[in-house]
Specification:
heterodimer; A: alpha+beta; two-stranded antiparallel ribbon; B: 10 helices; about 70% helix
Chain lengths: ~260, ~160
């Protein structure tokens, strides 16, 4: 550097000492505003393999826990929808329960889809997959709705041995006419009188027997066959034609001509 | 990884907060880098803001936090050149008037440097105001170290001539 240059060098260095004065105020404001407006975003931290992810209920709530050693920001994706974008600390259990999450899960997944695919990616950072459903157990343990349906459907079918035993008992009963309700039939074979009635209605034979009982009077027999009438209603029944009050009027004369 | 560094420092820091702190630490330097390429203050501000947004998007790709300054400086330079290309046929009012602003912060040397051709202006601002080593300037501008040195020498000469 020549001596002339040295002077200029010193001059420029002197100017650079108060360089902050050359930065406009608007710059700092603009920069701060830009930084403030930056979206929350994932960093690609490695909580992935260690993340413990649970589907509590496929339709309403997803819970996961970070057990990694480093804090990391996570974007949880479910069927392409971004549900959660925040930083989680180790051990923290963030739950997604906001309405957007519910809409997204309802729109894109169903329990069967996840169950069938098994490896449906339920969480990932912007650059690395942080976890996936690998076992069916995780789903069946946590999916209450599904469990209920499975319980209902899981009534065991009867054993074939038991079925055969039941059949034998039933056949044995049928062989004994008294036990099988064939007592009347057996009687009827000797006496034709009550055979038909016993055959038609073996369960309620009392009324028929009472009606046909020669010891009962005719009135008693009628009472047995007559339908019972509630005494309170009996008085209110219309007396059709008894005193002519409720008798309908009979139209007299020729029928009206149609116009 | 950035995370490991954060943990080593013994504290848990929000990702965005961490990025913002780094940017603010180097904000002055970033402005001078942009200003060395762009004459207009507003364009320089835009270049930095645009670079910050791009850097934020790719922040997880940065392998070591120690390289943050050089990494973001390179992004600012690219953005500044992009604005330069965009404004190729546009001349700002500031450049047309070209009269020194006799404000409170008026500095003749600074104004003279800003009036120089781009090749001299860039190296002078980067070297004196941004305090970037010659080797790094050569790296950023993709020129030889000797070229930077000669441009600095000629730049100084031009400043001297204009002051007289």
């Amino acid at each position: 550097m020549y001596s002339d240059e040295k002077d200029t060098d010193m001059l420029i260095r002197k100017s650079a000492e108060h360089k902050n004065d050359f930065i406009p105020d608007s710059y700092k404001k603009k920069l701060l505003l830009t930084l403030e407006c930056l979206p929350d975003k994932a960093t690609g931290g490695q909580i992935t393999e260690e993340a413990d992810i649970k589907i509590i209920n496929n339709r309403h709530k997803i819970e996961f826990r970070a057990i990694a050693s480093a804090a990391a920001a996570v974007v949880l994706l479910f069927g392409g929808y971004s549900l959660l974008s925040k930083v989680i600390t180790p051990g923290e259990k963030p739950e997604i329960t906001d309405s957007s999450a519910i809409v997204a899960t309802e729109a894109t997944t169903s329990s069967s889809t996840v169950k069938n695919e098994k490896k449906a990616v339920i969480a990932e950072t912007t650059c690395t997959t942080i976890g996936e459903v690998t076992t069916e157990e995780t789903l069946s343990e946590t999916n209450n709705d599904f469990e209920e349906i499975e319980k209902f459907q899981a009534i065991p079918a009867p054993d074939e041995k038991e079925l055969n035993e039941d059949k034998k008992i039933h056949e044995k009963k049928n062989d004994d006419p008294v036990k099988a309700g064939k007592a009347e039939e057996a009687k009827g074979a000797k006496d034709d009188k009550g055979a038909k009635g016993a055959k038609d209605d073996p369960v309620v034979p009392e009324i028929d027997q009472a009606v046909q009982d020669p010891n009962k009077t005719k009135q008693e027999a009628d009472q047995l066959t007559e339908r019972p009438v509630i005494p309170e209603l009996k008085n209110e029944l219309p007396k059709n034609g008894a005193d002519g009050k409720n008798e309908p009027e009979i139209r007299k004369g020729p029928a009206p001509k149609l116009q | 990884m950035i995370f490991e560094l954060t943990i080593q420092r013994g504290g848990y820091m929000d990702f965005k907060q961490q990025f913002s702190q780094l940017v603010m630490k180097h904000s002055d330097s970033l402005f001078f880098t942009a200003k060395s390429i762009l004459r207009n203050d507003t364009d320089a501000e835009d270049a930095v803001c645009s670079a910050v947004m791009k850097a934020y998007e790719k922040f997880d790709q940065l392998k070591e936090i120690a390289f943050f300054k050089s990494w973001i400086t390179r992004i600012v330079i690219n953005e500044a050149y992009a604005i330069c290309r965009k404004n190729k046929n546009v001349q700002s009012l500031e450049e047309v008037t070209a009269e020194p602003s006799y404000s409170e912060n008026f500095d003749e040397t600074w104004d003279i440097i800003n009036s120089l051709e781009e090749e001299y202006r860039t190296v002078l601002i980067m070297f004196y105001y941004d305090e970037i080593p010659i080797k790094d300037i050569a790296d950023y501008l993709n020129v030889a170290v000797g070229t930077v040195k000669s441009r600095l020498s000629r730049g100084r000469q031009k400043v001297k001539d204009l002051i007289k």
